[in-house]
Amino acid sequence: MRNIAATTVIMKLSESKSDTSIIANLYKSINNSYRRLSNTSNVLHRIPEMEIPNMAIADEYDIEKMIAEGCFAKIYLAHHRPTGTTVVLKAIHTELTSLKEFVREFHYNYQLSHHPNILSCYQVKFQTKEYYVYAQEHAPFGDLAANVGASGLPESSCKKIAEQLSSALGFMHLKLLVHRDLKLENVLVFTPDFSRIKLCDFGSTTREGVLVSKNNKTWTAFLPPEVLEVVKNERFICKASSDSWQFGIVLFVCLTGATPWKSADWVRDTKYAAFMKYQKRETTKIPDNFRRFTPRLLRAFRRIFDHRDEDRAKVTDIMKYMKNRWMDGKITVSKSASNIASVGQPQQCPHPHQQHTNSDQDSVKYINHRESRNSFDGKLRARRMTSVGALTPDSVPGSMNLAGVDHQDAIRSKVWDWLESNDLSASGSVDDLTFWSTKDTKTLQLQHHQQQQRRQSVGGHLLQPHHQDLISFSESHSTVSFLRETRTITGGGVKMFK
């Protein structure tokens, strides 16, 4: 029995020893894998020292044409004679770029080339008397700036661009790299249906968390607010959230053909100030240039264009909205718009005596609920009719005198125009007026004018009040409802009673 017990103790000790060794080996393998990952990251972020050979472009290349030219570089389409391949040569001015900056751009582009949506860079680099040159693959359909029209691109194309561009930027962010110069010129197109695009130009690419200065090559409309507020020669921390902001600007331009604002400055730019109020939920009014989007895409833009960079959405978050519709085919108007009297400047209207004001939901005056109901009494209707638009003889153009026909016709025309401009449905009450089309209204006015001419031809004038039937047609002209209203037209204005 003692031997059995001793054997059991030895077995347990051996088992515990084996378990300990297994755990130790496991931790060792994990540490080795982390070490390999860290070494890979160090290789990516460690800019190597390179020897750039001197060579003239004409020694091995035949220049076919110059594709693009910027302040810092020129892009040539060239034919490489030794291999018989067509490549793109990016020639960067030596006076505007240091050797260290050139090597850093080439290094990042070459190390990131294995991603399918990042432009491939070949192991070819040299310098001439005026340029640092390295070779890239050729994009046959140019960049996005040459493909986006004044009205933008179809929604399906924009989704393809957003998916591929977010994948490329997300890959860079996983490597702790920030592009910092995202714009339409830096996205190249390889297929006409945008099923294959690639990100390029890594001259401003920097490691995340490093102190950097403002990039003067980026357009002002693409700069996020935290970068735009940086003064000259001031340094700030490089963050991936700046790429998210620029990604949103690129997506907006692809959808609409224009940038949402000139600069993300809420003091100087009214469009950005309007979006900020909407983004912070200080108003329910959607900015004019965002009204064509669906509520789902509006939510995405509100997160991408968050003023606080720490709350801004990641570039890969756009994948959550791929199955949703982005563009709204129609602009919806609230049903309660007729109950809102807006404060603003009058605009030109199709009717000469009718005036409307700009609707601004930030500063609105709501009419009393009792007055905005479908059914209300005749006295209240008469008060609203005579109070809207200042229905007085002096305010009506062409008014002659208190007994003149022109003055009465002008008063009557203003009342008709007021009735057209107010949606007064006759649901359940004979006393209410119905809304009729402009064509039927003009027909009734023409009939009334002909009656006036016949009476004047006999030699009579409108000496006393008269009664007239008002006929209201529905918009479909399928049903006709007769509402009898008695109107008394006097020299001082209009009175209505039953």
TrEMBL record:
PROSITE patterns: PROTEIN_KINASE_DOM (PS50011), PROTEIN_KINASE_ST (PS00108). Residues 342-362 are annotated as: Disordered. GO terms for molecular function: ATP binding; protein serine/threonine kinase activity. It comes from the Eukaryota. It holds the Pfam family Pkinase. Residues 345-356 have a biased composition (Low complexity). PANTHER family: SERINE/THREONINE-PROTEIN KINASE SBK1, SERINE_THREONINE-PROTEIN KINASE MENG-PO. This is Uncharacterized protein.
